Every structure is written in structure tokens, then in C-alpha cells.
Amino acid sequence: GKLMTVILIICAEGNSSESTAMLNSALEAVHEAFMKLSSLITVTTASQAGLEETEMACLCVEMMRGVAHANRMNAPERIPDFLTNYLGDIAKLMGRFGGDMHVCELLLSFFRDYTEIYIATLDREKSTVLFHSCSELLRAYSLKHCSNQREVTKCGVEVNVEEEQAYNDIMTSIQLLINLGTKDFIDECNA
Length: 191
Fold this sequence. Notes:
By secondary structure, this protein is mainly alpha-helical. The chain contains nine helices and no strands. The chain has helices at about 1-10, 15-45, 50-70, 80-85, 85-95, 100-120, 125-145, 155-165, 170-190.
């Protein structure tokens, strides 16, 4: 993720056609990786999902997260323009891979970070796509994890660390909901 962020910021540094071409090439690589994941998902069923598919999902979400974090580049409004096209498909990954806690936390973190960085700048159309995508993401998350009972069985200092790790996905989903809730407040203040 961080490598993608650095690549995008460096590619967008100049205002020349060369820097625009490099930025477009970097974003095209992200697109191609996501399309490869989509084709893998299309040819396998959820019960057949294997290590390659899960690793590809992690890679794609990390790359998208890296794109989201490139908000310090020149003309950062290009990021929501690019990512809005993928939000629905990224959210659908929770239904497929949400049982894997690593993928689950990556997906929640991506949406939390994206909303934290861009929610104030999104227009109505992009906000609508984001809210629908988050709705689908959180619905799939709750179906996979809200009925699970979690227990921490360590004692002493390890309990706090283990407990924090065990509930990291819940904290991330709460932060995402808080970020989404601020959109109305921000819009009212700007009106």
C-alpha cells in the first residue's frame, strides 16, 4: 500500500504530459490487478476460493488503499475519480473473503481510510456510491461476524494486546461509521 502511495505521489509531481502518462500507467496497473482478481472470482465458487485468490484480494485491497493514501499528490481529486468506479466491487469482496480476518480488516481499513481522507470533498454522486458500497460492505461484515462470540483466553499484559487485536475489526467498522456520519455535518456546515 505504502509503495503504491509513493509511486503515485512521485508520478503526479510534475504537470507535464510525461508525469500524467506515468500516473495513468500506475493506475492502469492497479486496474489490471483488480480485473485479474475479478476474473479469478468469476471462475471459482466461494467454496473453491484458495490461497491464490485470497492473496490476490489482499494485494488488490492494499493497492487500492495505497491509491487512497496518495492524497498529497498534485490534483488529489483524481483519486476519488478513480476509486469511485471500484468501491462497489471492493465492498463485494467482504461477502467472498470476509471470513478471513486479515482480508476483512484490510477491507474495513480501506473504507475507513478513504472516508477519513475524502468524505469532505465528495460530491453527491460519489457520496451516494460510497454510502451504498459501505452499506454492502457492513452488511456482509455483520453477516459473517456479528453472530460470532469472541473470547480472549490469555492472562496478564497479553490480555490487553490480544483483546485489542481481537476487536480491531469492530473498532475499524465503528470508525468507518463515524466518518460516514460526519458527511451530513460537513455538508450542513458548507451550505
